[in-house]
Amino acid sequence: EAAAAWAEALTLSPEQEQTYRTVSNSLSGLRLFSEAADALDQGRQHLGRDDLFQLELAHLYGLAGEYEQSARFYLTVLASDPAHVGTIQNRLARLAESAGAMEGFDVAIQEAVATDPFNSAFREMEAWVALERQQFSRELDATRAADRLTGRDGTAVYHFAEAALAAGALNEADAALDVILERYSDGPLVAPALLHRARIAEARAREAG
Length: 209
Fold this sequence. Notes:
- The chain has helices spanning about 1-10, 15-30, 35-45, 55-65, 65-80, 85-95, 100-115, 120-130, 135-150, 155-165, 170-185, 190-209.
- By secondary structure, it is mostly helical.
- The longest helix has 19 residues, at about 190-209.
- The relative contact order is 0.06.
């Protein structure tokens, strides 16, 4: 009944953005998250504005457990403003422990990377989800790609090497150090990279007995 009443409310001022936002907020307050998202989506369609309510929709779909759709809206935001990558990672991280969340995020992120493989923000998101899923080889590929696309100093690759080494992913850590030593041979990360390489050698010697 509540949903029907709010659906009727949408007809009162259908040309106003705030109408859809007000109805959506009311439905969300009743924990009708899917219905709240539907209200905003109706507004986008009626007003012919696909750019409206993107962050709100991403948030609502996440609350509704529609993780793949939530990630798609967040990635749409990233496509137009890559500076949001840290914020969006934090928002998705809050949902990451929910059943099926990481799998849904991963589907959306893989789609985004396939559509635009040269988008550095998408690659950073791919690296994040790969780390969360303990997929170190994939994380290395994504981190290396993001580093190359952004022209950075190798810091992200170095941090990956540290994380992989701590997790016992020695081959991936070693490969990351290769990137530092080859691509940034004159940079400040060379000395700590060599120290990590020595630690990898020690770890392999312990494994060999």
